[in-house]
Amino acid sequence: MSLSRRGAIVTFLAAATAGAARAADEALGFGPPEPFSFEMLKARVRAMGSRPFAPPPSAGEGRSAFDFDAMGQIRFRSGAGLWKDRPGGAVEFFHLGRYARAPVAIHVVEQGQARQILYSEALFDALPGGRTQPLPPGLGFAGFRVMNPGNQNDWIAYQGASYFRAATPFNQYGLSARGLAIDTAAPHPEEFPGFTNFWLEHDGDGALVVSALLDGASVVGAYRIVHRTSDRGLVQEIETALYFRRSVERLGVAPLTSMFWYGQADPARAADWRPQIHDSDGLAIWTGAGERIWRPLADPPRVTTNAFADHNPRGFGLMQRDRNFEDYQDDGLFYDRRPSAWVEPIGDWGAGSVQLVEIPTNSEIDDNIVAFWTPAAPIKAGDVMPLRYRLHWTDEEPTQVGVARVVATRVGRGGRPGQPPAPGVRKFVVDFAGGRLSGLGKGSGVQAVVGSSRGTPADATAYPVVGTSRWRLMFDVAAEAGNALDLRAFLRLGSEALTETWNYEVFG
Prior knowledge:
Layout: H1 5-12, E1 29-30, E2 34-35, H2 38-49, H3 68-71, E3 74-76, E4 91-95, E5 105-110, E6 113-118, E7 124-126, E8 141-147, E9 154-159, E10 163-166, E11 176-178, E12 180-182, E13 194-202, E14 208-215, E15 219-230, E16 233-244, E17 251-258, E18 260-262, E19 277-278, E20 282-286, E21 292-296, E22 304-311, E23 315-319, E24 340-346, E25 351-358, E26 369-375, E27 384-394, E28 405-413, E29 425-433, E30 447-452, E31 458-464, E32 470-478, E33 484-493, E34 496-497, E35 501-507
Parallel strand pairs: 5-13, 21-35
Antiparallel strand pairs: 1-6, 2-6, 3-7, 4-8, 5-6, 8-9, 9-10, 10-11, 11-17, 12-17, 13-14, 14-15, 15-16, 16-27, 17-26, 18-19, 20-21, 20-23, 22-25, 23-24, 24-27, 25-26, 28-29, 29-32, 30-33, 31-32, 33-34, 33-35
């Protein structure tokens, strides 16, 4: 995955401009009308899938003195947007620049007719100290953003390869989604198919519909994304039709991309004055069998991939559970307000695994976390894959967890307080809250279940934390230098699980 993408987002999403007139606004130019429907788009990509991939040219290709850095100072001009008279629906466009060099075609659809929105330098302003040379004609857009009600802040944005993101429910960007991930963390370079064309329209209920054409060396696809507000944020209903030109080693469906530098479990690694820095702090999974899993994120010493095998998963997501400002102390970037994203499969996804890729980082500008679903069946040239899911941009899981949730993970040296530390032994402290634990006391029969991929955890104990509504699980594990081990733990009463299954990888 690209570790420079966050820089692109910071550069291009810094503007705060107001949208302008609808399609009739004379500031916008349009191409001739052409019939359009999602069925027509699927037919188009089906035909493309039988032909070799033709890489689109980058903007400025063959031109000398093309200053992409200076282009990063260009901002969309107030009064030149689309659909200003639709509350919460004004559309603005991103200019090409250093981190987004591939132009995309953007169309507006009304009554089954699509017209391309034509690029013009007149739609943009240069910030003070920005470019001074005229831009080449017909350069093209890098993507677009849709403003929230009042047109004061971003609501959603599409820019760069197949990346898109939403700022709801806290008017704050954080993690991103992608149309597809191919060969992430594979032995060979990752492939980044990109959205090359967009069609914007509204359905009969007034919801924004974004259709998109995905094109890459291995796959071509049609996407239809319906945007609907919910009481927790935004729900994107996504329908895709994928046509594979060649075999794919590792396919990532519904990929989510985020950043984790350091957090509560590893304060000793903090290289900054802020207590924690991350866009997401854990991977949540709701398996097809009904088990709830929580996997705290980490900044690993090496690229690490974990696979959680499943059949017909009910959901998974990268979540930001810690909403306490005191745990971040950042009143500029507001990590406590970063959205969570939850994938809700629609229909039968079959056998496969939720995969988590963690990449080492030493700063907060790198997106080093990826989570996606990988089908168990191999992907071969000529395969066709229809797929549907909902993507929730929210504060927490949109479905009731039912069991107690993990609310804290802490790691320290093992052994008993006041005694000499045991070499190579670490102590793990996991706090749970909610569910049926809330009404249970120390003598209620709650048991700790702890397992390890190697060795035997020692001194496991669980008890209610005095003065709080939490329960605490503590145990020691010996970790061998240079070796990793996997831990699993939960609390139960009799045969009933009372909590999520906490899953953690220890690097020796």
